[in-house]
Design the sequence.
């Protein structure tokens, strides 16, 4: 049975990045929008415009661009996958803002797929306990603390994240924080962003790894 969701946001071209959105699923096939082109239906193993469909799930698909793998949610924010070959080895990613001006993107922590919300006011990569468990983080052994949130004061645990990946950027040994309550997104804060150069151009934001 075909499942189709509306495309969220508009894709815009960006140097060294390919925008991919998943807008439909068939048994064994996925409908992708690549760099704002017309939707293209691919079977597992097929490629179009440099994007290869590797696998599909109940509500997601896994694609590959220039060796970079990314899991894309059905109907979710378009994912920007960096083309590291065209960047002469430089790790970067270009994100596209949604209608409210927020930068949301898929990525991973310790290899586990997550949805990030870019938050320049957050000091660390902050997540809820369910994300931490999925990423194999023994957060209750981390340093305990308290934090003020919109829902009041909550308990926190400071942890170290083995890897954090956004598009073509993978950072190792990143400081993280686990809050006692789950959140709709993982906050991509300063412990990741400060290790990149950030360039904002209208509705796009390009991050380039510094160290």
Sequence:
């Amino acid at each position: 049975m075909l499942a189709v969701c509306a495309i969220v946001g508009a894709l815009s071209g960006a140097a060294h990045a390919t925008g991919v959105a998943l807008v439909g699923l068939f048994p064994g096939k996925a409908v992708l929008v690549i760099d704002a082109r017309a939707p293209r239906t691919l079977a597992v193993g097929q490629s179009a415009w440099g994007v290869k469909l590797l696998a599909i799930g109940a509500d997601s698909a896994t694609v590959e661009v220039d060796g970079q793998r990314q899991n894309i949610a059905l109907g979710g924010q378009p994912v920007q996958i960096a083309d590291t070959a065209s960047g002469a080895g430089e790790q970067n990613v270009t994100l596209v803002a949604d209608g409210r001006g927020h930068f949301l993107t898929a990525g991973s922590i310790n290899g586990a797929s997550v949805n990030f919300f870019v938050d320049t006011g957050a000091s660390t990569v902050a997540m809820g306990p369910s994300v931490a468990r999925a990423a194999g983080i023994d957060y209750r052994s981390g340093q305990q603390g308290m934090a003020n949130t919109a829902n009041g004061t909550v308990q926190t645990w400071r942890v170290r994240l083995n890897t954090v990946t956004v598009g073509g950027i993978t950072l190792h040994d990143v400081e993280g924080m686990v809050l006692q309550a789950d959140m709709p997104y993982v906050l991509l804060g300063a412990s990741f962003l400060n290790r990149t150069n950030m360039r904002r151009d209208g509705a796009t934001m390009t991050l380039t790894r510094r160290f």
